Each structure stands twice: as C-alpha cells, then as structure tokens.
C-alpha cells in the first residue's frame, strides 16, 4: 500500500457539489493507493504509520495531538509513466480488491481512536486543501 500524506490546515472532499468529508483544523490529508499484492496486514500497518507519523508541527503526530485525518482513495498512486505519454494503471488493484483495503485502513484508524473523515470510493471527487508548509511525504508498506 502507498499513501501520500500532506500536512494541512484544512481539507475537504466534494462529490457532485456536496461536501462528503472534511477537516477544518490542522491535520493530515491522506491519499491511499492499493496494488494487487496488498493485504489486510498492510492496511493495519499503514493506519498505524499514518496515525503515529510525526508530521505535524513540533514533531507531533495525529495520535499525540488528536488531530484529524481526511482519507481519500487514490488509485492513480500506482500509475506508471515509464513508457509513452499515457499512464498505465496496471499496478493499481481493481476496485473490488482496493475498496475493502481502503475501508480497512479507515476502520483501523477509528479503532486507534483517530478522528477520520473520508471521500467516496470510486466517485469523481473534488479535493480542496490548504497545505501547511508545504509538507508532503510518501508512506509505503
């Protein structure tokens, strides 16, 4: 699994003009991608890493600061541009495999006591964020 984690002051996701998830205080925007070989165990590891990642100001984590996370599925994180001009999506897991694993990351974060907002899997989403820094990391399991 792969996540792009950005420290934000606020972030929101809209689908069809309606806000479906958002955070209105400093926290993390987490874009999650899944590949074919990913497992439930990796979903748990990713949730732990993201929750405990010391990416907030003063080297705090969402776990220690009780900061919110906005988790959004992002199959394009496994896009390849090695050949030609058209990205290849062959490394991205199909929706029927990816959706349960993204949901598992979210559930594992909730189990850890995290405050989590989400996008809508498979929908065309508009993601707005106000970056803090900017500060962006790639987290892989």
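Sequence proposed for the structure above (141 residues):
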């Amino acid at each position: 699994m792969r996540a792009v984690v950005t420290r934000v002051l606020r972030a929101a996701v809209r689908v069809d003009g309606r806000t479906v998830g958002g955070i209105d205080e400093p926290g993390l925007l987490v874009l999650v991608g899944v590949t074919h070989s990913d497992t439930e165990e990796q979903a748990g590891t990713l949730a732990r890493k993201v929750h405990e990642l010391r990416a907030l100001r003063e080297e705090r984590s969402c776990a220690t600061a009780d900061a919110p996370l906005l988790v959004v599925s992002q199959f394009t994180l496994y896009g390849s541009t090695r050949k030609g001009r058209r990205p290849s999506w062959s490394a991205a897991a199909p929706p029927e495999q990816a959706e349960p694993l993204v949901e598992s990351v979210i559930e594992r974060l909730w189990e850890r006591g995290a405050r989590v907002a989400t996008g809508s899997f498979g929908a065309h989403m508009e993601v707005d964020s106000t970056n803090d820094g900017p500060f962006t990391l790639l987290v892989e399991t």
